[in-house]
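Bit of a strange request maybe. I'm writing a small parser for structure token strings and I need a real example to test against, not something I typed by hand. Could someone generate the tokens for this chain?
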Amino acid sequence: MKKILLASLVFAFSLSLFGQELKVNSGTPDGIAYTLPAKAFIVNIDVERTDYFSGPLAAYAEPLLGIQNPVSTNKSVYRIIDVRIIETVYPENKIAGTLGYVGERNSREKQSGQVMMNENGTLAGLNIQPFEAMVSDGFSWSNPVWNIQSPDFEYLLAAPNQVMETDTIVKFITVDTATIKDVSYKHRLVARSEEDKANEIVEKILKIRRDRLSLLSGYQEVAYSEGTIRYMDGQFQEMEKSYLSLFRGASSSDQNRYTFVIFPGADDRNNTIKICNFSDDAGISQNNSGQAITVTFTTEEFAEAAGTQKGVVYRIPATSEVTIKHGKEDLGGGIFTVPQFGVVKAAPAVSNPKVLLSPNTGAALQTTIE
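Reply from user aminoacidic:
Good idea to test on real output. This should exercise your parser:
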């Protein structure tokens, strides 16, 4: 709910004997200063990152398993999955005007007025009760952190690098007419090649498939429950998938949101502003990697009526088409009311004015001039 600060101002300026008016004048140096609201745009860009990991046995994927195009190198690939534009209100960092009474000071009668301000320093109204309206609060964001899980290939390949081989040596020794058979054994350690490891993993994969087929076909003739069969079948599939990843590689994905805040100025009503850069291999960056992601404002110009009034300052907001692009590709957009793209006007400086301004645009919602 919008919070309003109510200032009850009692002015000691007096009326003359001839009933001279006291006017609320915007521009008096000793008055109450206020600013007008402006629009900022929060651009949320959701990015998905997928990391591809080459399997340690990728060279044997096609010869042993017939797998075409396994992951050959480790790489990261980024893609934009969603773009959202959120508008928020902030006070302009300049004073739009000041409010004060001007006139003769020779009357003992007190002149009073109510100036209502929003908490962000914008004018809510003058001598009139404001409507309930929402004024955007502040917001916060944090830099995204990727949570990419790399596969544990070493765990799947964990096995002795050397195997014990035994050679049997048989000797026949003939002495005179007798023949003696001498049998001896020679043990040695032999290093296992990558191809040996690959063949062993292939045997494991084939065994998993045979065991899974036996489970699903009821070969073991064991009355497992449906839930048990589903669980065991899922475990077989996970084991096969893990061993296959040694050949064809693996991937892991994560999604993150990047948040950017655009504060367009009055001169940006028909302008393009760079937000960041994006490329498939580097993702979001602020350097020159990839193509720029931009926001373009397209606003129709309208004639500005002349006027030199010094009353309460208000805005006539403009409507702008906002478009987000990555290079030539449209990512999203919308139609928004942008106060700072409009024109600033002032109501007549009359006595006892009643004005209600929009907390979101600064437009005059209700005025009463007596």
